[in-house]
Amino acid sequence: MPEIKPDFTYLNAPxxxxxxxxxxATQPYKLPMPCDGFAKIMIEFARKxxxxxxxxxxxxxxxxxxxxxxxxxxxxxxxxxDREALCAAGVFLGRCAYGLKSTKDGSxxxxxxxxxxxxxxxxxxxxxxxxxxxxxxxxxxxxKVLDTFRYARERGSINDIGKFAKHCAxxxxxxxKEVFDATV
Length: 184
Known about the structure:
Radius of gyration: 20 Å
Distance between the termini: 58 Å
Strand order of the largest sheet: 7-6-4-5-8
Structural class: alpha+beta
Helix content: 25-40%
Shape: elongated
Number of strands: 8
Order of helices and strands: EEEHEEHEEHHHEH
């Protein structure tokens, strides 16, 4: 029997899941359970992810890309030339409930994550965790994407996504200034 070299994190309550350190996949479990049952889950998870490769980052955008925001209310758009900043703006704007689709070729730029899984997607797509990206302080890049927000026509719903986009951009700029002021 080949040796199993696990590389995963054991996350206990409240999350109760195993997380692969290479590909970011997770395996939930419920406690209490017999020790041998938990050991079996851990061994199977380690075997399944033994050959995982670290996620490969998504290719960067080489040009300004306009995206339709997939949401349940008004038709709206935003644009950016930095795929990661564009996706981060989508995450902030929709709190993971909105997706982004390229208006150029219809390709999915950011999926909708109503039921979760966006952290795993981010890791797989960009090669690092969302928090690691935001720790690099890309506030202005994300705010610039949010500044490009526009409605296709006059807003018809009560939900004012444009106002929230402006609010998010202002908040990111305030945060960037606070970080800058603290380092000077």
